[in-house]
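Give me structure tokens for this 334-residue protein.
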Amino acid sequence: MAVAASTSKILNNVEAVRETLYEAMKSDDRTVILGEDVGNRGNVFLITKDFVKEFGEERVIDTPIAEASIVGIAVGMAMEGLRPIAEIQFADFIYPAFNQIVGEAAKTRYRSNGEYTCPLVIRTPYGGGVRGALSHSVSIEALFYHVPGLKIVAPAFPADVKGLLNAAIDDPDPVLFLEHKKTYRLIKGEVPDGHYTIPIGKADVKKQGNQLTVVSYGLYVHWALEAANALEQEGLSVEVIDLRSIRPMDRGAILESVRKTRKLLIVHEDNKFGGIGAEISAMVAEEALFELDAPIRRLCAPDVPAMGYALPLEEEYMSSPAEMADAMREMVRF
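Here you go.
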């Protein structure tokens, strides 16, 4: 369960990441941070700025541009009792480390019959909306979603960032921690002081409603809420669920909401084909098909290889709050 702190402050998402990492480094000497530019530069978003001055180069490790090595070394550290937090500078660069994540980290407990665990956090910023184009806009969640033994977390709000990052650091198994870069400084909120955790695998109903369930995560939660609040002025009642954790997923929360509203819209930034929405759709169809009053709908990115740099291409790739509102309106009135 989450542990409530007595005081709080207003932070944005990037500040919530920084505070959580600092507190983890301060409280446990086993915690180390490694990645490209995390040391003297303090990360491209300045998340670890001045960490190396306080904790030293043995615990804040600037690495070469070699993602396979970053994760591979971190796996070894984790198996030997450290608590590494490996940073992939942008999610688009994670591909060279695919074998280390899927073939090594995710299988450590299973292949050793429980003799070893892999308490590793892999942090990386993902997603579009910042004119990052081909190499700085990707959503990678579906590529790793199929892998048992690997948890995937994608919080949208600062308090969830801190609680879930603490939970990831405390977890004995590997966690891929996704941070939507568009939300880094855009989203602010109240964050409790001190150490607290939010259980990985627990969704949160961000807005109650009774005519339609909308399921999302990351940046799109905020846009779904904007659309749902606009529709409320039209007398339409939309429930918005923030998954927070992609794997494990809170199936119970989704099914409970869908059985109440009897309609489901899934919105996510990743490509539609084979995305997280496909799994949610299948799960609901298997377990609650005859309780639905309308077909399940997915509002996702088109099946093109990458997000374009030009603003019209980026806007065409991503769903806007207005597009979400249109889809919600159609679903409610179906």
